[in-house]
UniProtKB/TrEMBL annotation:
It is found in: Cell membrane. The chain crosses the membrane at residues 12-35. Signal peptide: none annotated. Keywords: Cell membrane, Membrane, Protein transport, Transmembrane, Transmembrane helix, Transport. GO terms for biological process: protein transport. Belongs to the ExbD/TolR family. It comes from Roseovarius bejariae. This is Biopolymer transporter ExbD. The lineage of its organism: Bacteria, Pseudomonadati, Pseudomonadota, Alphaproteobacteria, Rhodobacterales.
Length: 128
C-alpha cells in the first residue's frame, strides 16, 4: 500500500499580504499627489488690495452697523423686504472679522424669521 501524498497548497495569508501591500502603495501614492508648498516660499500680501463684497450682500461692520451697496440699513428685516423676490432664497451676509458672533447669529435668525430660505456667510478663504 502506498501512502497518499500530502497536497501542498498555497497559504491563504500570502494573498492577503499582497492585497494589504498593494493598498499601502496606493495610499502612499494618493497621499502625495498634492505637492506641499516650498518652505522657502513667501506668499503675496494682499493687505492693500481693496476687496468688493458681492452686490446683493448685507455688509455688517464690526460696530454692528449694516450697509447694502454702500447705503445704511436700519435692520435685517428692512434689508430683506427691500430684496427682489428672486434674491430672497439665498441671502448673503458679509461680516467684519471683529463682529461678535452673537451679533452675527442674531442677524441670521432675524433673516430666517423674515423669510430667507438660506443665509450664507461670505468669508475670506484661507490657505490650508
Amino acid at each position: 500500500m502506498r501512502r497518499a501524498a500530502a497536497k501542498q497548497g498555497r497559504e491563504p495569508t500570502i494573498a492577503l499580504i499582497n492585497i494589504v501591500f498593494l493598498m499601502l502603495i496606493f495610499f502612499l501614492v494618493a497621499g502625495t499627489l498634492a505637492v506641499p508648498l516650498d518652505p522657502d516660499l513667501s506668499l503675496v500680501k494682499t493687505t492693500e488690495l481693496e476687496g468688493n463684497a458681492p452686490a446683493d450682500a448685507l455688509v455688517v461692520h464690526a460696530d454692528g452697523r449694516m450697509t447694502h451697496r454702500g447705503t445704511p440699513v436700519a435692520d435685517a428685516t428692512a434689508f430683506f423686504t427691500a430684496l427682489p423676490p428672486e434674491a430672497r432664497d439665498k441671502v448673503r451676509l458679509v461680516p467684519d472679522r471683529d463682529l461678535p458672533a452673537k451679533t452675527l447669529v442674531r442677524l441670521g435668525r432675524a433673516l430666517r424669521t423674515a423669510g430667507a430660505g438660506q443665509v450664507v456667510i461670505v468669508t475670506e478663504r484661507g490657505l490650508p
